[in-house]
Amino acid sequence: MLTQIPKGTKDVLPAETTVYQAMEAVIREKARFAGYQEIRTPVFEHTVLFTRSVGESSDIVRKEMYTFEDKGGRSITLKPETTAGVVRAFLEAGMHNQALPVKLYYLYSPHFRYEAPQSGRLREHHQFGVECFGAPEASADAEVIWLAMDLLNSIGITNVILRINSIGCPVCRPAYREKLIRYLRGKKNLLCGDCRDRIDINPLRVLDCKVPGCQAQLKDAPKMLDHLCDECAAHFKSLQSYLDAAGLPCIVDTGIVRGLDYYTKTVFEITTDTDAGMLTVVGGGRYDELVEEIGGPHIPAVGFGMGMERVVSLLDALPGDEKKLNIPQSQLDVYIAPLDQTLAPTAFHLLLELRKLGVKADMNHTTRGLRAQFRYADKLGVAFVAILGEDEASKGVVKLRDMKIGEEWEAALADAPRVMKDRVIKQTEEGMSP
Fold first, then answer.
1. For residue 176, with 0-12 CB atoms within 10 Å meaning exposed, 13-18 middle and 19 or more buried, which class applies?
2. pLDDT, average across residues 141-169
C-alpha cells in the first residue's frame, strides 16, 4: 500500500454513507420547516478571522488550528469551526441589510482541529449547525435548542440531557472574571498545567476542565449566575420559561462555558452517557457581540453545532427497533446479463430504458460467463436478472428471472422495461405488506 489514511481522519464507506444521507434528509426537512436556509462557506479562511472571533486565548487558536502560509504570503487556516465564516459571509453578502432575523444552516461542514483523536471526535470532523441573526429575545435561544432536541428525537436518539447556563455579557462578566481569577490563583498549585496557564488569559475555561483533580477544586468557585446583570438575569429566566413551555426539561449547569470566546449570555450543551463517558452531542449559545467584532453593526445572534460523526456513532449503538431513520436502499432491482459481447449494446439500451422508468438497474461490464454473472447478481442482492442470449435475441425477447423464487418467464424486448418495472413495484408492495 502506498500510504494510509492520516491519523484523526476517517473514510466514510458506502455502508455508512446511507446513514449520513438519511440523517441529512431529516436535517434539511427540520431546518426548512423552522425557516432556515442553507449556506456553504469555504473550507479555509484568513487566519485573522478566527483569532479575532474564536479568541487568541482559546485552546483552539493556541493549540489546535491548522494554519499555513499560502503562495501569496497570506496566513490561511483550515476552519476549526463554521460560525465565524458564516458571520463573515453574512456581512460580506450584505445579508445584515435584509429583514431580520436571518436564519441560516450549514450541513456536513468540515472542521479541522489538531487534537488527540477520541470517541466521536476526529482531527477532521463534520458538523451541522444553525445560526439565527437579529433575534435578541430568549425565544430565539429556545427555538434553536428545541430544533436540536427535536432532530435528535426524530432519528431515535432520546437518551440525552439538556444542560444550560449563562455566562453573562461585557457588562457583568469583567467583575466576575476578576473574582474568579482571585479564587483560582489561590488554588493554582492544585490545578493541572493547562488550567494554571488559563487563569490569567481565559479563566472561564478552567470551569470546563474535565480533569478530576481540577473539578474537585472548583466546587466552591464563584458562579457567573450569581453575578449576572439585570438584563442577563432576566434573559436567562425568560429562556427557562420558554423551555418549560416547550416541555423541554433541562439542568442548570454552571460548569458549561463553551470553548469559544465569542459566547455571551446563553450557553448550552446536549449530552449523553456512553460507555466512553459523557459525550457532548450538541453545543451552542448566544454570541451577541460577534457580528460587530468581525466588522459589522451590532446584531445579536444565537446558534449551535452538532457533531455528525458523534451522532452517527450513537445511532450505530442503538438497538434496531429504536432507530427511526429511513435508510435509503441502494440495492439494485435488476441486473442485465448478456451472454455474448455482441449483445452488450442491446443490453446497454435496455439498461438505460429501465433507469428512465426509475428502476435501479445495472449490467455486466466484464467478460463473466452466465454462472459467474448469476453469482455476482446474487451478491448484489438484486431482485431480478434479465438474460440476453442468442436464442432470446433471435426471438426478440428477454428472459427474466425472479431471484427470490427462481421463476423465469419471457417478455418482448420492447416491453421488458415496463414489465420489469411492474414486477419491481409488485414485489416492493408485497414486501411492505404486514
1. buried
2. 96
Beta strand 334-338 with 361-363 is: parallel
pLDDT digits (tens, 9 = 90+) for 35-57: 999 999 999 999 999 988 776 66
Quick: pLDDT tens for 106-150.
999 999 998 776 655 789 999 999 999 999 999 999 999 999 999
Measured between alpha carbons, how far is residue 272 from residues 152, 277, 282, 322 in Å? 11, 8, 10, 16
Counted residue by residue, the chain has a size of: 434
User: What are the Cα distances from residue 434, in Å, to 321, 385, 430, 431?
Assistant: 16, 26, 9, 8
Q: How far is CA 284 from CA 54, 175, 303, in A?
A: 13, 24, 6
Choice between 210 and 249, residue whose per-residue pLDDT is larger: 249
**pLDDT number for residue 239:** 98
Residue type, 372: A
395 φ/ψ angles, rounded to the nearest 5 degrees: -90, -5
Q: What do you get for the CA distance between the two ends of the chain, in Å?
A: 49
**Bond from prior residue into 101 cis (ω within 30 degrees of 0):** yes
Give CA 12 to chain center in angstroms. 13
Cα gap 87→328, rounded to integer Å: 34
Q: pLDDT tens across 224-242, in order?
A: 999 999 999 999 999 999 9
For residue 434, the model assigns a pLDDT of 47
Q: Which of 327, 324, 315 is nearest to 18 (CA)?
A: 327
Do 242 and 139 touch, CB atoms closer than 8 A?
A: yes
CB 242 within 8 A of CB 137: no
Q: Which amino acid is at 312?
A: V
Say how far apart CA 400 and CA 411 lie, in whole Å.
7
Query: Domain spans of the chain?
Result: 14-172+228-322, 334-425
pTM, rounded to two decimals: 0.89
CATH superfamily of 334-425: Anticodon-binding domain (3.40.50.800)
**Enclosing H/E stretch for 43:** none
For the domain spanning 14-172+228-322, the CATH number is 3.30.930.10
| Beta strands across the sheet bearing 408-412 | 361-363, 334-338, 384-388, 397-402, 408-412
- Rounded percentage of the chain residues whose pLDDT exceeds 70: 96
Please choose, from the candidates 285, 290, 260, the residue with its C-alpha nearest in 3D space to the C-alpha of residue 138. Answer: 285
d(CA 245, CA 266): 18
Q: What is the pLDDT of residues 79-99, one digit of tens each?
A: 999 999 999 999 999 999 999
